Amino acid sequence: MTMHERSIVQQLDDLHSGKYSAVELTRHYLDRIQRHEALNCYITVLEEKALAGANAADSARAEGQNHLLGGIPIAHKDIFCTEGIKTSAGSKMLDSFIAPYDATVVAKLAAAGVVTLGKTNMDEFAMGSSNETSFYGPVRNPWDTTRVPGGSSGGSAAAVAAGLCSAATGTDTGGSIRQPSAHCGITGLKPTYGRISRWGMIAFASSLDQAGPMARTAEDAALLLQVMSGSDSLDSTSLDEPVPDYRADLTRSLEGLRIGLCEDFFATGLEADSEQVIQEAITVFEQLGAKISRVALPHIAQSIPAYYVIAPAEASANLSRFDGIRFGYRCENPSNLEDLYSRSRSEGFGEEVKRRIMIGAFTLSTGYYDAYYRKAQQIRRLIKIDFQTAFEQVDILLGPTSPQPAFKQGEKTDDQVAMYLQDIYTIAGNLAGLPAMSIPAGFSSKLPVGVQLIGNYMQEGRILNAAHQFQQQTDWHLRSPGAVGAGD
Ligand code: GLN
């Protein structure tokens, strides 16, 4: 097994026993990043900084300091501010933005000893499901380079799958950690809203955005979550709750665990082979002792329309700061102030972002606010109640992550609604603020398929436990994509 096929937990053992050093591990990834540049996973590669960090990690280890993630090379989605380093959010608007401080997530991981390899490609301002809205070009799926990796955290997902980092950070507003994780065959977790600080994470829709880990195994995700979580005085929406030891619970037996199948997820639109994969996953959970029942989430179908009112409304407010003066790209030779605003924004933002700003400004305007925004908030409440009712009967919910595996590049770029429907199974989790994860569970025509596990508030430990036990019985998470050559 080559270095990049080892999980973080195994790499930590290897580093500890001196099998290889952090510098060797980092060089291995830097070399792979260069060789697989065509996947376009990274916007920025930090070769010098990474090697310096790896050196420091090796010295710290030699001195007997044991950092939780000492010497582990990871990548950050380019939506997290990184001090002194370009932070673009996948947009021309921020192409020349050098962040003046670190996001809390970045600072916490750095304090735990990670080596930062670089910043990953993403849909512009995290708006998209295919990574095709990035100013830096699309990311290719390492399982089939003619296909999308999913989005918006597609660069992170493809980089983990292709062995171009040990793990990566992502953000999820409507599915952007889970859907690309499913499409790339990796493990991704979106925690409870507020579990992880949003400080320094460029805002898309503030009441929905949440950061999370993207890794090869549930155990690695638990380790990363441990470091990333916690309350933060810089983010008033971060939850003031203690951070449990997520790894301690992984080995718990699933005997008697009540799993609810969201029957509304299976009603329409789920591809037959993907459904087969989900059914087989259910059998594995049954063999592990779980009790399966069916639960209803009757308002799921309304989650997409509600989201596409709420998310653009918040985005239109959040993105008003990019005006060419305080932040962001400024047009050449403006003739007056109005021209400066209007051309900076029309030249700096891509099409999808502009579409969302316009929808958001419209739904928030007088006369339309009650008809759209208020209605969407009411639906959001009904969806929350659906979940609360379901969690009175079961411990976790199970369903597909995505209606079908990774689609072809360009296949859905002309059909916004088809693209928006990609998140039909993930968006409700954001509207309710619940923790949810995607784990690899099989293949459909040689493309990875993910199973989604949704937990009640603050029950990250429970879904991680279920995911870990599943991964002890299956090896889907250990498969390597063909495009990067097994073991090469
Ligand atoms: N695909 C959804 C959107 O385009 C969700 C994106 C996300 O979670 N950041 O808004």
Overall structural domain count: 1
Q: Remind me, CATH topology?
A: Amidase signature (AS) enzymes
Global Rg: 21 Å
Spell out the CATH superfamily: Amidase signature (AS) domain
Number of helices: 16
CATH C-level class is: Alpha Beta
Strand order of the largest sheet: 1-3-2-4-6-5-10-11-9-7-8
What ligand species are in this complex?
glutamine
Low-confidence stretches are: none
Overall CATH architecture:
Alpha-Beta Complex
Structural class: alpha/beta
Query: What profile does the largest beta sheet have?
Result: 11 strands, mixed
Question: Overall pLDDT, averaged?
Answer: 96
Q: Could you list some keywords that capture this structure?
A:
single chain, 488 residues, alpha/beta, binds glutamine
